[in-house]
Specification:
Helix content: 55-70%
Radius of gyration: 22 Å
Strand order of the largest sheet: 3-4-5-6-7
Number of strands: 7
Number of helices: 16
Shape: globular
Largest sheet: 5 strands, mixed
Strand content: 5-15%
């Protein structure tokens, strides 16, 4: 939540931060200008002092710390989330909306670091908003105002359930899981057919991220096609249906896994293990040290902007 907190503070709101004292997040908050005893407190004290309580802990931490936080979510307050996870999967998290409080959601479509960077550039991330419980009659008005205050580019309506379903589905799909799998598969086929690591990476990742995806982001898929060679256009138009047909069953299985709670259980179980950070680092190191991403490090280092 550091991006949201800093943006709120820069927009003139009276913000206090609650994190574990002397932990990694506490030290980071101090480095970012939060002052212990003034606007930086332990979690319980911050929850007690706040009238709009931003619950931006990790999903596993929201489950584990809810009994600690819940007594401070008293009638008249607003409970704010940036993910529908805890409320939607309450049978696993045991997080239920307390009586007498507004419960709202504003979910930026990107990381906190990106939210902060775009804010400093005068831009904004798109965010979804939802109201789960409206006691005051002003919950919608309040969440719109908060969405603007955290630095959103524009806001669109959803529900807590639809937000978490689409978010978990998207992360495991195109946004992170599927794209990694597709990158690996194409790279491996190129390498198996004698192409160099540099050529395989450039034709798989570098051209996508540096040339084609920015065109899609600017004006859409048809615009990207229109600005490529005729040979590229024809190949893409002829092959995209085969990729659609082969991947659709996988995406259907993935969505059902999200809807039935299997993904939630897996995430909570894994993230709650005492050695999770060490295990995660091993998984990330395996990716980082794989040939495709070692080739990527070399290619990125050769970009003109990195050789000034």
């Amino acid at each position: 939540g550091h991006g949201q907190g800093l943006n709120l503070r820069d927009n003139g709101l009276n913000v206090i931060v609650g994190v574990r004292k002397d932990g990694r997040s506490w030290k980071k908050a101090v480095a970012e200008g939060w002052v212990p005893g003034k606007n930086l407190f332990e979690i319980e004290e911050a929850a007690d002092k706040g009238n709009i309580v931003f619950n931006l802990l990790s999903d596993a931490a929201q489950r584990d710390l809810w009994p600690t936080i819940k007594p401070y979510i008293t009638p008249g307050k607003t409970l704010y989330f940036s993910h529908g996870f805890a409320i939607t999967y309450k049978d696993q998290t045991h997080v239920e909306a307390p009586a007498g409080v507004d419960v709202v959601l504003c979910a930026p479509k990107g990381s906190g670091a990106t939210l902060r960077t775009l804010f400093l550039e005068g831009k904004g991330l798109n965010s979804s908003i939802a109201v789960f419980q409206d006691v005051s009659g002003k919950a919608h008005e309040r969440v719109v105002a908060l969405g603007v205050a955290i630095g959103s580019g524009y806001l669109y309506e959803t529900t807590f359930e639809k937000e978490v379903y689409s978010d978990l589905f998207g992360e495991r799909g195109i946004l992170m899981g599927a794209i990694n799998g597709l990158f690996r598969a194409q790279y491996d086929v190129l390498r198996a057919n004698g192409h160099s690591p540099s050529e395989a990476f450039n034709e798989t990742v570098e051209e996508a991220t540096q040339s084609l995806i920015p065109l899609i982001g600017a004006k859409g898929m048809d615009w990207m096609y229109a600005n490529c060679s005729v040979t590229a256009q024809r190949g893409a138009l002829d092959w995209h249906q085969k990729f659609y047909d082969s991947s659709l069953p996988v995406f259907k299985d993935l969505y059902e896994s999200v809807r039935n709670g299997s993904e939630t259980k897996r995430a909570l179980d894994k993230n709650s293990q005492s050695d999770y950070r060490e295990s995660l680092e091993k998984e990330l190191a395996e990716i980082r040290e794989s040939e495709i991403w070692r080739a990527g490090e070399t290619v990125r280092g050769l970009r003109p902007e990195n050789n000034k």
